[in-house]
Amino acid sequence: MEFNVLSFVQLIGGLALFIYGMITMGKGLERAAGSKLEKTLERMTGNVFKALLMGLVVTMVIQSSSATTVMVVGFVNAGIMTLKQSVGVILGANIGTTITAQILRLDNGGGSGNLVMDLLKPSNLAYLVVLAGVIIMMLAKKRRTRDIADIFTGFGVLFIGMSVMEGSVAPLADLPQFAALFAAISNPVIGVLVGTGVTAIIQSSSASVGILQALSTTGVVSWSAAIPIILGQNIGTCITAFLSSLGGSKNARRTAMVHFYFNLIGSILFLVIIYAIEFTVGFPFWDLPIDKGGIANFHTLFNVVCTVLFLPFTGLLVKLATWSVPSGEVQEDPLAKLEPRFLTTPSLALEQAQRCIAEMGDAAKQNFHFAVDPLFSSTIAPDEDQFRERESFLDRAEVEIGRYLTNIHNIRSVDQRRQAAEMMHSLSDFEKIGDYAQNIFSRMEELQQAGLSFSPSARRELHTMCDAVGEALDLTVEGYVTRSVSVARVVEPLEEVVDMLKERLKTRHIERLSNNECTMQTGIPFLDIVHDLEKISDHCSNIAIYTIQLVEGAEEFNTHAYAKQAYKSTPQFADKLRFYQQKYMLQTGVQSDNT
């Protein structure tokens, strides 16, 4: 029996089965654990030991340190976990990833002659487990039951893939070239490079360790060859986090660097210590064949020892990562919070979308003040680039947040569906506020370029209306961010007063035009600005009502029905309306009929 093209095809196919089984089992375990898995990981990172434990447990569940590290990169990129908090999770993930190799060692090959005992061997039991998984899948009607079927199927396919790989490489034991190859790999530098390269290509240290365990069944792989390969495999697994962090925030890239430095420094320390001992004292097993158990144990030993060594020096890892990815002058994109990794966890995804919409509210507020403040001062126009940048952000945010919300998977609870619907409404209104602020900004620029200004009375009245709209916008954003019904309720009576101000200002300005106190050159822009201010107030009212309806559990979002029926007839509304009439209407020199 010789190693030929068919053997190589079987090796590749076995590896494919192995990776597929590992991913399927991990996804099944992750879904079975529920969306609380990532939420718990997010909340249990205040203490480095808790973070380490959570990283270990989560990685054991999803069978991939790369997946856990990518998840952590996502948390850091989204701003819901700090770089310092991520270190403990990464240390724990490196220990948790060794569980796959320990599971694979359970199958030592050979037969006992006892049918029952042979059936219980993982490589044989795997076929029965796959059968059970397929049966469950065929009969399953619920998502949770299908997740269990994936766990069974993935576990079985994992061992079947391992068995196929072992069978395909068996002829290599008789090839002198194969033995010579591993003799060359005994060179630590070559061994580390081989381990790093293979793992980087397949992006899974568990899979590359599995390949090494399969090759060890030939009896040709020695301890001296396996040790540097295993160290290289731990370095190569960092490639997934690196790729995941590309395009992310600087702290996301720093998180990937923490993972890299942990494995790189740990591998260097192990190489120096192991080869120092070998050259001075010597290991009696150094040139002996290593088996699957030896590979699994050394893999575990490396990660456990490195974790214990680095625990007191987590700050050093953070400093190294910060030094490697220095702070630049480029401002972080607020929409980086829309992490695609969170789309399968609705609670996290909705939380991030809500934070981004809050950023829209802040941008709309800034642009509003940028637009109206120069109307009442002799200063030059504000930096147009900053204004345009925020306006561009508002336009882009409406599209990207809307797309993100529609792509969230597995929204099952009624509250989450209502939250998503509220966000779709609110983000549109915040974008519209930005549009009307842009209109005001353009009119302000035209007036300044023409050297025109409003009359003192027109300026005073317009200032009053801008103050009222500014307060409405402040209350709207505060109510949205804090989900405060008491704050949001104040917006609607203030919006009523803004409507009164609009009519009053229009009437007075037309009188000024008739008396030639103002010209048409300033008259038209004045009325246009009043119109834009009133529209901003309308959209503030919409957002406030959405906030109230969301918190109070309304079945659907209907601003008109709410404004006319649910609140305007209450004594609280009348009190607030009277308060704002006295605050703003009297400043225009007239008291409303409703006062």
Notes on the protein architecture:
The longest helix is centred in the C-terminal third of the chain and has 37 residues, at 414-450. This protein is 76% helix and 0% strand. Helix 4 runs antiparallel to helix 5 (83-96) and helix 18 packs antiparallel against helix 19 (384-406). The chain is mostly helical.
The shape is: elongated
Oligomer: single chain
Cα-based radius of gyration, to the nearest Å: 33 Å
Number of helices: 26
Say how many strands there are: 0
Largest sheet: none
Strand content: under 5%
Distance between the termini: 101 Å
Question: What's a quick, concise take on this entry?
Answer:
With 595 residues, this protein is mostly helical. The chain has helices at 5-33, 36-43, 48-62, 65-78, 83-96, 99-104, 115-120, 122-139, 143-169, 176-185, 188-202, 205-216, 223-236, 239-245, 250-280, 292-310, 314-324, 346-372, 384-406, 414-450, 456-482, 485-488, 491-514, 520-552, 559-567, 571-585.
